Amino acid sequence: MAANKDMGEDAKAYKKSGIILLMGNPNVGKSVLFSNLTGIRVISSNYAGTTVTYTEGTFKLGDETYTLIDVPGTYSLDATSEAEEVAVRFIDSKPLAVICVLDATNLERNIKLGLDIQKYNIPVVYALNMLDVAKRRGYEINVGLLSKELGAPVVPTVAVKNEGIKELTDELKKVIKRSGISRGSCAYKRTGIGCDNCAAKRTGIGCGGCASCPGCFINYMNTWDRAREITAKVRKTSEGKVSFLDRLGNSMLKPWPGIPMAILVILFSMGIIVGTGKLLQGYLLGPLVNEIIVPFFRKLISSVVPAGLWRNVLIGEYGIFAIGFEWIIESIFPYVFLFYVVFSFLEDSGILPRLSVLFDSIMRKLGVQGGSMITILLGYGCAVPAIIGSRTATTKKERLLISCIVCFSVPCISQTGALISLFAGFSPMMLVLMFLLSFAEMMLVSTVLSRLIKGKVDPMIIEIPNLLIPNGKAYAKKLMLRMKNFLIDAEIPMLLSIVFAALFKETGLLDRVAVYLEPVVSGWLGLPKNAVIALILGIIRREMAVAPLLEIEGLTALQAFVGGTVALLYLPCLSVFGVLAKEFNTRTALAIALATTLNALLVGGLINQIVHLLMKLF
Amino acid sequence: MIIKNYAQKIQSLYYAKDNRLYVIADVPDLGILRSLGIVKNAIIYKKMTHKFGGPVLLMIDSSQIAIGKDIAEKIYVRG
């Protein structure tokens, strides 16, 4: 139906005509509804602030094609965060209509936003979402009365099950058609729906500003009072069922049993990623790559390309068809896939915000607040979405702190996969030590930078979503989208770096460069001179700072650990550098790149020198 | 932290007793709090305060909200 255009902030988008906005509180199902309407898959999660940029798509209503914009979730139109500012700019841009998604389980606050939107005199259709959850909790909502009170159509929807979408688009069509006839401040004239007190409805004449209409929202200066009044009228509350998930969700917020449960969740998640990854690597992908794919290409290329430079480039030690499969498919892909299997589950189930609450006091000591933990954890997948996701932070200092923590100390999952493969021949303790080193670095960086960077970090204020079992279809779609993004965004630079590595090695350039870098690589870090290639490729992709070490024969445990340390702390990859420059500025990106490189060489070298000194002493 | 005020005492939300209903008496002028409905005269149910400087958990309408110590200390409640 349309091309996916996740555009970030683009001033031109505010000037477009004929756009329809999809608005609502955070975490009410807007992104799922957007996917249902446009066919474009958007990553949505069970916590506030997933959409910090907006996404544009097109959809058809009858014969007309409209542009739909998935606006970042906003609690109000006060622009209290960067994401909310984007929402305000959109509604100021005179859109054709707004689809406002209401969360049936939190009616009062959602109606308040609806009333704020209505003040802009734009035709609105309400999608009353999560009605199924509201019923389970004992809320009975009179949809017809709600529609009258709001003076606009209200359509019950269950976005994750694709229910109510047709009815919603039908109402939207009617509202847009009517808005062509009458636009103005009178909600009744625009929509044909009015409450019992509506003067315009009684007389059939538009009130022209509703100065005398007691039922019209415009008369209510305090929209909170009006939202409470409407909620009290349309909602009946009875004793709801407290499900097992509700009880579990509440338990996970208390230190006991919440903290032990959180530790179990983290250990279990790591177990699935590392354990299953190793099984896949050892029993499925390893034999597939080494016994079938690579020998097939070796045989094929050897029969076509004569021995020499080009055959080596294609299938030699660093050959494109050898390491291209070994590094990407065998060493990295299983861990990336499993990370997103686990992380997407944690996101959609609502576990992550609970971890934020439990670990808020620890995070505060690190200079950030508990809510930032979700963004940092996202960095264990890839630093790029984590840095973009830091937009949800309310101050510039916190954004910078989160980005620095991710760049300095958090390995991305591709890199973790490469590290697991690197340490596989030694002891599993090396991986544990590497993660401890990463945490130590995280503490050091946040403690130092929180004192050095000027400004403040706001305390945590977050809404805790319901704990739920993720919807299978939505979960599978999200996983597929993430893997597709990984294959497109990461595989191409990886393949390029492999081609570069092959040419670099086979043309003899590596040996020449190695001479200049030998004092650092071999002298200070104690690595074989071939490891130079890891430092160079690490600039393109982070995992490529590890992968070449897999090819070096006779690597000692100390060399593997030092190489892993340098790779862990080394320069963020080119994509991360680009995002840092875009989100902050080039100076900040350069400063982070330089600081991480020096830090990596310093820490890696110190480990090498200290261990050698200890070996000499004992 | 407790200020005597006519019939009902006004106290900081952070130190108020758990598992009770309160009415907000005074709240810092922060957009995010307003947006979440934590405004003067709103009725909230305080669930608990996490130890060691952790956040306060409260319910407003049917949403559950966690508020960090530094802000929760500045929210005053009656009840």
Explain what this protein looks like in three dimensions.
The complex is a heterodimer of chains A (618) and B (79). Chain A is α/β, with parallel strands linked by helices and 618 residues long. Chain A has two domains: 5-237, 3-Layer(aba) Sandwich (Rossmann fold); 255-617, no CATH class. Chain A has 29 helices and ten strands. In chain A, strand 5, helix 4 and strand 6 form a beta-alpha-beta unit. The longest helix of chain B has 5 residues, at 31-35. Chain B has a single domain, classed as Ferrous iron transport protein A (FeoA) (SH3 type barrels), CATH 2.30.30.90. Chain B has helices spanning 31-35, 69-72; strands at 2-3, 10-12, 20-26, 43-49, 56-60, 63-67, 76-78. The interface between A and B is medium-sized, with 38 and 32 residues. Strand 10 of chain A pairs antiparallel with strand 6 (63-67) of chain B.
Strand content of chain B: 35-45%
Q: Name the chain pair with the biggest interface and residue counts per chain.
A: A-B, 38 and 32 residues
Strand numbers in spatial order across the main sheet of chain B:
1-2-7-3-4-5-6
Q: What is the approximate shape of chain B?
A: globular
Portion of residues in beta strands of chain A equals 5-15%
* SSE topology string of chain B: EEEHEEEHE
SSE map:
The complex is a heterodimer of chains A (618) and B (79).
Chain A: E1 5-6, H1 11-15, E2 19-24, H2 30-38, E3 55-61, E4 64-70, H3 82-92, E5 97-103, H4 107-118, E6 124-129, H5 131-136, E7 139-141, H6 143-150, E8 154-157, H7 165-181, H8 187-191, H9 199-203, H10 223-234, E9 235-237, H11 244-251, H12 255-304, H13 309-315, H14 320-349, H15 351-358, H16 360-365, H17 372-379, H18 383-389, H19 396-409, H20 413-423, H21 428-452, E10 461-464, H22 472-489, H23 491-506, H24 509-524, H25 532-537, H26 547-550, H27 557-569, H28 574-583, H29 586-617
Parallel strand pairs in A: 2-4, 2-5, 5-6, 6-8
Antiparallel strand pairs in A: 1-3, 3-4, 7-9
Helix pairs in contact in A: 4-10, 6-10, 12-14, 13-23, 14-20, 14-22, 14-23, 17-18, 17-19, 18-28, 19-21, 20-27, 21-27, 27-29, 28-29
Chain B: E1 2-3, E2 10-12, E3 20-26, H1 31-35, E4 43-49, E5 56-60, E6 63-67, H2 69-72, E7 76-78
Antiparallel strand pairs in B: 1-2, 2-7, 3-4, 3-7, 4-5, 5-6
